[in-house]
Amino acid sequence: MYRLSRNDKCWCGSGKKYKQCHERTDxxxxxxxxxxxxxxxxxxxxxxxxxxxxxxxxxxxxVGILDRLGxxxxxxxxxxxxxxxxxxxxxxxxxxxxxxxxxxxxxxxxTSINNIICHGIPDSTKLKDGDIIxxxxxxxxxxxxxxxxxxxxxxxxxxxxxKLVEVTKECMYAGIDAIKPYEPVGVIGCTIQDIADKHGYxxxxxxxxxxxxxxxxxDPYVEHYRQRGRTMIMMPGMVFTVEPMINQGTWRGRTLDDxxxxxxxxxMLSAQWEHTVVVTETGxxxxxx
Length: 289
Ligand code: MF3
Ligand code: CO
Ligand code: CO
What we know:
By secondary structure, the chain is of the alpha+beta class.
């Protein structure tokens, strides 16, 4: 598969000889999948233990921020105060906020309120009673990226909004549970779409989960909806996000004139949850827990 001779060190970074490590899996499992037309991940997407450890350390900061935001996010605060906290916490922990200046994004995190699907820019908007907000944090520590987001509910939130937030979280965890090595990444989207369909919700198609860890956005492309065609095979050591964006109404969205803020086309609510996971021999492990 990866054109190694049997006595070479295995491509996975274990230090073992190829013939004592991945050769059998490559030939018995991957070759047939490849022949059946499934894209096999390039070697650079299979991370070694040291790299995964680096992402784990980065994730500790991301999770620390999201936890602390639980106490900070409240009615009356401006989204730029959230950004100030993220920027300060990140710097204090020797890390860098990945969003800042990423393709020109002006802030250190994304704050997406109500009908904003994602990529909301922190500004002087004040949080109001009844709002739902997604805060998306991506941290770089020693070159390693971790990416996670959560929903926060402000004061008295309507039952419909609460339900959307809860079902979206269920979608994310069900998608994560569907991850199994040597299965195509498309099983994630099938699982998520089944749940969203049951509730009549729309699954956003314009933005997807993504490989992460050594870069902000890498392969594989993790669709959250069901699609035709063969998707990339998941292998132990791959790190990517699962981050479904689920809309109350249509799945369609549009970008505002600022070039970033992505809102629902019908202005109904949207929710999102995101974790970074690593594929293991038996399933996966959430790194941003
Ligand atoms: N964190 C987002 C994601 O989950 C990406 C934000 S890009 C930014 O992929 F530039 F808006 F920060
Ligand atoms: Co992401
Ligand atoms: Co994110």
